[in-house]
Amino acid sequence: MNATIAVVEDEEDILELIEYHLEKEGYESIGFLSTKNLSSVLEEEKIDLLIMDRNLPGTEGSEFVAALRAKGINTPVIYLTAKNKESDIEEGFVSGGDDYITKPFNIKELMLRIKALLKRTQTNTTEGCLRYRDITLNLGSREVHIEETPIDLTKLEFDLLCTLINNQNIVLSREYLLDHVWGTDEIFQDRTVNVAINRLKEKIDPDKSKEYIKTVRGVGYTLC
Amino acid sequence: MNATIAVVEDEEDILELIEYHLEKEGYESIGFLSTKNLSSVLEEEKIDLLIMDRNLPGTEGSEFVAALRAKGINTPVIYLTAKNKESDIEEGFVSGGDDYITKPFNIKELMLRIKALLKRTQTNTTEGCLRYRDITLNLGSREVHIEETPIDLTKLEFDLLCTLINNQNIVLSREYLLDHVWGTDEIFQDRTVNVAINRLKEKIDPDKSKEYIKTVRGVGYTLC
DNA sequence: ACCCCTTGTGATTTTATTATAACACAAGAT
DNA sequence: ATCTTGTGTTATAATAAAATCACAAGGGGT
């Protein structure tokens, strides 16, 4: 779920510094000392952001990016460079860079620019997630994953699970669940909740090994 | 068609300098010496970008932006400031800034950052192509291609597809679609959306083999 | 004015979901 | 041990939702 960031920098200690900070911030990082092998990785792996030194031996970083764009690869790029003459800045932006930072740079500023850029480009995939143990609910896409494997839930099951997660450690009565998940107007039987809970259990824990949902006899159900 | 940019800067000569260059680049510019009146303009006019000094007398620029975001106004912001301590940079980004440039600044770099930021934010509204899998929408000519073969879509179908692509992985309710694709004033029935979606499906995937649009029962439709 | 295209709505069919009933089982209570 | 009560399970019926079809009311364009 975390963003994956590729870094191209020929100075090894700077590369290590950046990778260290990226991982500290929780990103996946892949370092390169040159643009060699980079193309194939960008095409095959899901890279969310590219940090590119422009003063590479051999190919100019910006030429490389221009070639990427021509191939239809639109990974956002932050340039990292010692150059700061106007013409260089311009060239960097023109060839499809999304941001630009000059050496010597403040590592914290770089991290913040990364964060800001990812926020813009990653739209809504990471936000709005509810988690419980190894279950992840994406509220926007309404996708449910258990340890990376997707699970199909109906609207009712999804809403029910949301309510349970949002009230962890609280035992929810059938009456409460009928009110909050089903809606207030119509009247249903308490049994209805049982069956819905069981169907949900069956989907999220078919082997009955995880015991996500605990039933509290005479009261209701809870997640703890 | 040209972007409209609002500039807030209390030093009159700097404000004039920026406005001069903005207009030279072909943007519409609106200058402000303080955040007074700015809110109403942002709400009423279509402002594509806000350039904001943070060292304003009275309100802090970043506080003002935070307030904007709280109101749901998401105009992109470039901060312009003499401050450069880490904590200030951080505060600027956190409160919803999209870029940050410190005084004394290179006016050309500012122009380039403006261009880059507009490119990122305006892609989906004005120029360029939208892509989804093998579908390409040309937003200017409103042409649609699926793997090089052209497809004829009506205005409604085109707008609907745009909205779906711009909200990939998010399940859009019929209500949301009626609001955003049809427009707010008139009232239509939910099933109107069904029919429009089906007509769109029929055009972009007559054999029903691609399954571009997924219907999420009880919720709405999504593209994933 | 005419025709054609678009599109909103009604009617109908098809599908998926879910409420309920009926039964089975387990844990306490008597 | 047996009865009672609550819950799990399964099957079936009811229902809600969506797809599909058909038609008619606008809206442009010629």
Q: Can you walk me through this structure?
A:
The first copy, chain A, has 224 residues and is an alpha/beta fold. Chain A folds into 2 domains: 4-121, Response regulator (Rossmann fold), CATH 3.40.50.2300; 129-223, Arc Repressor Mutant, subunit A (Orthogonal Bundle). Chain A has helices spanning 12-24, 38-44, 61-70, 86-94, 107-121, 155-166, 174-182, 190-204; strands at 4-8, 28-32, 49-53, 77-81, 99-102, 129-132, 135-138, 143-146, 149-151, 172-173, 213-216, 220-223. A 5-stranded parallel sheet of chain A has the order 2-1-3-4-5, sandwiched between helices. A 4-stranded antiparallel sheet of chain A has the order 6-7-8-9, with helices on one face. A 3-stranded antiparallel sheet of chain A has the order 10-12-11. The two termini of chain A are 24 Å apart. Chain A binds chain B through residues 86, 89-90, 93, 97-100, 106, 108-109, 112-113, 115-116, 120-121, 123-125, 138, 140-143, 154-156, and chain B through 86, 89-90, 93, 97-100, 106, 108-109, 112-113, 115-116, 120-121, 167-171, 216-219, 222, 224.
